[in-house]
Every structure is written in structure tokens, then in C-alpha cells.
Task: structure prediction
Amino acid sequence: MLISKEFVFQRDDKKYGMKISKNSINQILHHCQNASPNETGGIMAGYYSEDLRWAIVTDISGPTADSVLKRCSFYRGIQGLQKWLDSKWKKRKHHYLGEWHFHPFASAIPSKLDDIQMTNFANNRSLKCPEPILLIIGGNPERNWSMKPYVYLGKEKHELKIVGSRPPSFFCTI
Result:
């Protein structure tokens, strides 16, 4: 059972971290349940702390109408995303922080394709997000699931580990 209002993840060296609310995780799990047994995903929006060390996720998108959801792959489309992001910017100056992705009945570890895509995003100056986050949900979204976030810096990938009393990889029941 989820107890805290937010999850806090951080790199081992404490140079970078991510905060995401219980509500946002529940939204992601809802999308995962609707897509299961297929993969699904979307984007995360929010803002950075003043010292730029924390990404605070405030909004989650689901898969767009032009996304392709399959058992062992997911292609996130773009239909309507710019309008969605523009609305987040206009309301609160929040912007793109990264991607979330579901691996049904599998581990919350990025595939090689996930790593390639996120590395390309990190190096794409037009995205204006040199440190994109990838949050992977793995397992059964209705019972036992796990989540792991990763931050991509250039060609480097860093796992963000949960801060607090929970182990880095955990299972929850909702």
C-alpha cells in the first residue's frame, strides 16, 4: 500500500533527484492497467528546483492517439503533446521532464532501445531537456509492480534510487 504523498529518488552522489506524487504514480498505473498486457507510456512535465538538482514531476500524459502499444514494444506518438505541454507552460511555467514507460509483467529496467532513445533525447538541443528522466514501471499494474527512474546525461545513464526507508526496488499493492 502506498503511504507517502510523494516518492523521492536521488542519484547516489546526491547531485540529481526526482520527486513524483502518489497521484501521478496512480495515474500512470491507471494507464498501465488500461493497456495491459501491452506496453504503454507517456511524458512527464513539471519543473526544476532553484538549484536545478531536483526535477519535480507535476503532470503525467497518457499515450497519444497516434501511439502504438504492443506486447513487447511501445512507440509514443506526438499527436496533441505540444498543445498539452503548452498548456502546462502557460498555467504554471512547467515543461517537459522526460518519459514514463510500462513493461508489463517484466522488470523495470530499460531496454537497449529505451537507452538509445533517451540518450538521443538528452543530446537533442531542440528538446531543451539535457537531463531527461525515464521512469519505468514493471510487473503487474493491478497487484505487484515496481518502478525505477533513470536520468540520462549526455551518453551516461544514472539510476535514481528511492530516498527513505523503502528499498530501491519495491513492490506495492494498490
